[in-house]
Specification:
Layout: H1 3-19, H2 39-55, E1 58-61, H3 64-72, E2 76-78, E3 81-83, H4 88-93, E4 100-102, E5 111-113, E6 119-120, E7 128-131, E8 135-138, H5 141-153, H6 175-186, E9 191-192, H7 198-212, H8 214-219, E10 223-229, E11 234-236, H9 237-248, E12 252-260, H10 269-290, E13 296-298, E14 301-305, E15 312-313, H11 317-333, E16 338-339, H12 352-367, E17 372-373, E18 379-380, E19 385-387, H13 388-404, H14 412-415, H15 417-422, H16 433-438, H17 454-459, H18 465-479, H19 487-502
Protein name: Methyltransferase
Organism: Parasedimentitalea marina
GO molecular function, one term: methyltransferase activity
């Protein structure tokens, strides 16, 4: 290698190492979404969703307020069951915005949902965590805080997430306070609040208000709440009550039916997609009845099953096709879409199966044009486990996928004509000025240490990718620095958490 190139290479390595924490991940796509279904198929699915809502309906259990709102809007209410004439649910959804900003504590991290925007976030809801040294275990508050720190530290995730893992060492009725506190203080990216009861949803809103201010939150979205339909075709009062709390405060509600084909709905992808649309439209309609124009996200979570054993499967072709169809339907509904995919897997380890499942699901998700992708990092065992090593492997793949969504340029500089003039036939391009101008940023640079040649890899103990990922997550936690926060705001948050905890007994179940 020529001396000039060696010097540039040293500068490049230093620049890449410094850029690990300062890289800004792309937040938009240039590659167009893939359209799986034609117009006739989309209309057939929408007609089936209307058929479900007219002939079967959706039950709202224990929420008379929701039932009264639907009755006043023209739906048919019989006991706790609500049915809709064709087109009514879609009409009620029409006031939801097609695009909106989700503000972060640091405005540089504010994201937009809808349009050509892409927002990636970590896994959600796992009661267990795992790493190669300590193995599989119940998650603690320290684990939760670690994943918030890791998510904040990587440029490839745009959103801090919600219940990234369940801190089981804190009482059930109090842990939401610690989780929201972690999102607000250890990160400055967008986040999700609690939805496990209306009271906990209100606590989340109140804590966010201490940070963002009541006046700002009245006009702007700073947080999200995830509302799952209790598929098939039920909303319980916990979910609908929390939905109404977020909607009343003009904060984003993500409505996410969860359908496992063959258990919560028929087996076929067409039926799963139609039922998802039906359940989601009803939830979105309720949001609009509580507060017209409140931002929503059309979410989904679905999987197939091993029909021999009953075990859930993830990343299957049928589920991936459903993800693609749901994105199309969400675009037609005119609201941002949360994919049912992400880097999900039923594997019990961060192995080849885990990455195969995850890659298939993530490809389908991003090609579909989904705007928000949950479970983008860390997911194992069908969501039972957040894995430290898989988190790192997944985040690296997020960087690959976001880079691919940008396509490539075809301008004068991209063609590198000066490089041809500088060299000649049969000569290499390594030391050309074009190479020196671009080699630092030309290719995606993995954050997982390279294994090197076979001989070097063997001499270093033959470390596999998950073992190399262990070193990476430990380094990230060592290097983590909390984003600054006003001391008075921090004191107010801590006082709120202490006061709320003191007002309630410990409940572990």
């Amino acid at each position: 290698m020529q001396p000039e190139l060696r010097k540039a290479a040293r500068r490049g390595r230093a620049s890449r190492q410094a850029a690990v924490s300062t890289t800004v991940a792309p937040r938009t796509r240039k590659v167009r979404p893939y359209t799986l279904l034609d117009e006739a198929a989309l209309v057939a699915i929408e007609d089936q969703a209307d058929w479900i809502l007219q002939n079967i309906g959706v039950e709202f259990r224990g929420d008379q307020v929701a039932l009264d709102l639907f009755a006043a809007a023209g739906a048919n209410v019989d006991g706790e069951r609500v049915t809709f004439e064709p087109g009514l649910a879609r009409k009620l959804c029409s006031t939801a915005p097609s695009e909106f900003k989700l503000h972060a504590r640091n405005p540089a991290n504010t994201v937009t949902l809808g349009g050509d925007n892409v927002v990636l976030m970590p896994g959600y809801g796992s009661p267990f965590v795992s790493d190669l040294e300590k193995g599989r275990r119940y998650a603690t508050l320290e684990d939760f805080q670690n994943f918030v720190k890791l998510t904040y530290s990587t440029p490839w995730l745009h959103h801090s997430g919600g219940t990234v893992c369940e801190p089981t060492d804190v009482p059930v009725n109090k842990r939401h306070l610690d989780m929201v506190l972690a999102h607000l203080t250890l990160s400055a990216k967008p986040f999700m609040g609690s939805v496990t009861s209306p009271e906990r949803s209100q606590d989340s809103i109140d804590m966010a208000r201490l940070v963002f201010g009541a006046e700002f939150m009245e006009k702007n979205v700073v947080m999200q709440g995830n509302i799952n339909a209790n598929s098939p075709l039920i909303y319980d009062d916990t979910m609908s009550g929390s939905l109404r709390i977020y909607a009343a405060e003009n904060q984003c509600v993500c409505v996410s039916p969860a359908i496992f084909a063959g258990a919560m709905g028929p087996l076929s992808p067409a039926a799963v997609v139609a039922q998802t649309l039906a359940e989601a439209m009803v939830g979105i309609a309720l949001v609009q009845l509580v507060r017209t124009g409140c931002p929503v996200v059309f979410g989904s979570f679905h999987s197939t099953m091993n029909l021999k054993s009953g075990a859930l499967t993830f990343g299957s072709p049928e589920a991936n096709l459903a993800s693609m169809a749901i994105s199309q339907l969400g675009h037609r509904l005119g609201v941002p879409v949360r994919s049912g995919g992400g880097q999900i897997s039923a594997s019990n380890a961060p192995d080849g199966q885990a990455m195969q499942d995850s890659t298939g699901a993530m490809w389908a998700t991003l090609l579909s044009g989904a705007h928000q992708v949950w479970h983008s990092a860390g997911w194992l065992e069908g969501g039972l486990v957040m894995s430290y090593e898989k988190f790192i492997m997944d985040v690296d793949h997020c960087g690959v996928m976001l880079t691919m969504l940008q396509g490539f340029g075809v301008d004068e500089e991209a063609f590198g004509r000066d490089a041809y003039l500088e060299t000649g036939p049969g000569q290499n391009f390594l030391s050309t000025q074009h190479t020196l101008r671009h080699f630092i940023t030309a290719n995606f640079q993995s954050d997982i240490p390279e294994a090197g040649s076979f001989e070097t890899w063997s001499e270093n103990g033959s470390p596999t990718s998950d073992q190399r990922a262990t070193a990476r997550w430990k380094q990230m936690l060592t290097n983590y620095k909390a984003p600054p926060m006003d001391e008075n705001v921090l004191a107010a948050l801590n006082e709120f958490v202490a006061r709320r905890k003191a007002s309630m007994p410990d409940e572990w179940y």
